[in-house]
Amino acid sequence: MTLLRSLLFNLFYLLWSAIMHVVSLPLLLAPAAWVWKAAHLWIDGTLFLLRLFCGLGYRELGLEHFPHGPAIIAAKHQSAWETLFLSRRLNHPSFILKRELLSIPLFGWFLRKIGMIAIDRSGRAAALKQMVRDANTAFAQGRQIIIFPEGTRVAPGAHKPYQPGIAALYSQLNVPVVPVALNSGLFWGRKAWTKKPGRILIEYLPAIPPGLDRKSFMAELEARLEPAAKKLLSGAV
What is the pLDDT of residue 127? Predict the structure, then answer.
């Protein structure tokens, strides 16, 4: 049954995505706010299809820590789900993402239009400086920044070293960092076309205030985020 439901979801998701991308093409000439409205419609439709065909919903924890003002959101990354959900849940956020995504026909054009922050991962120091400049521009527009500290999707229970991008943003932007734990990979795995029924848990953790030195910040972020993510995987909430 899970295979059949996943097949139906994937078929309707591809169709829905193709329709939305083509119909929204003229919006590339319109203000970015119009593109965001189309993106929200696409995401809402996708989350609806997940509920309808796969029986997959979500539950938010730690809403008292939900970021409303300027903040960097440092989230675990296990699935495509959180890129959709956080795009919809936050205030027109700007993701830190790899530059290659901007080259994807249609999809990449829309990412560029709404001001996502693309980073050349081979650029090192120069790329980090440009990322900070772009993040300052996003903050000036009243947006929040989302970064995945490990730099890529990581399977549930696995862990990769945190990349220097999050430390650069924290040290230069002087805003709090809100860690976000989740267990989406249990239901929508990396490169997996099957989607399992259930309820994804996403938890907003207490913000790390600005002012720590680089080493202390990185240790604090990992100390908060990793145990919380493991707790969600065990279902002990």
Answer: 82
Closest to 171 measured CA to CA, from 144, 135, 117:
135
Residue 104 CA to residue 19 CA, distance in Å, equals 16
Sheet holding 117-119, edge to edge: 56-61, 198-204, 177-182, 72-75, 145-147, 94-98, 117-119
**CA 120/CA 97 separation, integer angstroms:** 9
- What 8-state DSSP symbol labels residue 115? T
pLDDT tens for each residue of 64-115: 999 988 999 999 999 999 999 999 999 899 999 988 899 899 999 999 999 9
Write out pLDDT tens, residues 160-189: 999 999 999 999 999 999 999 999 999 998
- 9-39: b or e for each residue (b if 16 or more CB lie within 10 Å)? bbebbeebeeebbeebeebeeeebebbbebb
Tokens of 229: 């993510």
Q: Which fold has domain 56-234?
A: Glycerol-3-phosphate (1)-acyltransferase (3.40.1130)
Taking the complete model, does pTM exceed 0.85, yes or no? yes
In terms of Cβ atoms closer than 10 Å to its own Cβ (0-12, 13-18, 19+), residue 59 is exposed
Handedness of CA 61, 64, 65, 67 (dihedral sign): positive
Q: What is the residue extent of each domain of the chain?
A: 56-234
